[in-house]
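Contributing new records

If you add data, match the layout below exactly. Sequence lines come first and carry their own label; structure lines follow with theirs. Keep one chain per record. Anything else will be rejected by the validation script.
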Amino acid sequence: MAFVIQPVARDVFDSFWTPALKRKIRKFVHSADAASRELQHQTWAVDEGVKACLLPVSLAGRTDAAWCYAFVMNGEFAVVRHESYCVYSFVGISPGLADKLDGVKRLIAEALRVGGEFLDGKSGDDGLFAVPDAQFMRP
């Protein structure tokens, strides 16, 4: 399968954003499930075949407006931050994904290619928010 952009569905979200994941990721991001009404208006990239998702998040302890995303797969996570056009850095990665970094980069790049910066599947008429080829800074 491949990543598709869709509205966040609470039941699907809960299957990814488990209590165990919340404990692991909370030092990196603000809770993504704080208000259900916020989730119902948000879109994300989901690949049900590999059981992975990518969603926008806010970094804990940061007030800047950089785009940040949580990639979640099999109860593990990677948090990435937008640095410049098509360039991203890793803010944090759980031990279960650290040894799979090349595959994680490929999946995140695919989700961003499909979804654009807003993960809405639209890149604007001028392609301003498109991410045709995401690159990652060395961790």
